[in-house]
Amino acid sequence: MQPFEFAEPKTLREAIALLDTEMARPFSGGTALMLMMKAGVLHPERLVSLGKLGLDKIEIGPAGELRIGSMVSLRKIETSEAVRRGWPAISRTLLRLSNVRVRNVARLGGHLAHGDPHTDLPPLLSALGAVATIAGPAGERRAAVESLYAGYLETTLARNELIVRVDVPAMGKKQAAYLKCTTRSVDDWPAVGVAVVLDGDQQTIFVSAATDKPMRLASVDEVEQLNIEGDLHGSAAYKRHLMRVYVKRAIHEARHPSR
Q: How far apart are CA 226 and CA 222, in angstroms?
């Protein structure tokens, strides 16, 4: 890797100002960023650490929503009693997200902002109706998590914008599940990921991994219309078949969650 400056701002305003250049990147957990730098894919001249901004809290909001700061580790979310009790699908999903060493380091904001369609939380949080609070030079804005993605490794975040918090609505009587199919170990990148939320007779379905970003489906029949490309995880035809199967399995899992 080439040498780089490591900045540690203490305020959001300072962090956003430091990011206002093509050669700067935010640094949260660094699990994906450092690999890309070591591989020579990225050559930032400045990394802007978000570790001193106070974005590491899990709270319950006034409407019963789950509020997760962008610098909360995935492991902390996984083991949070509030998350396990009120949003168990999130806890179950994190148990098979990569491995515990990665979950100890990776942060929620970086996980969402990376834009890799193989990551597990974006489709689930999208199905749950989660909303991100995003800070930039003009102040804060709110955006549905599903709107953050534009394509493979592409997001709708500006260069000098940061996710500061994610709000997940209270579940109430809704039921949810996320299932993925991996070609090797259970913690591997998925060939297909499916998130389902059931609210009475209404279904919210998001698919990922086989598509270049999390995609909303009205029904399993829409799988036939998706643009799916084959890769090392399987051919397009194989992934399409998997998706049809896993949408049905995820609906069943949401209604009858395994222990």
A: 7
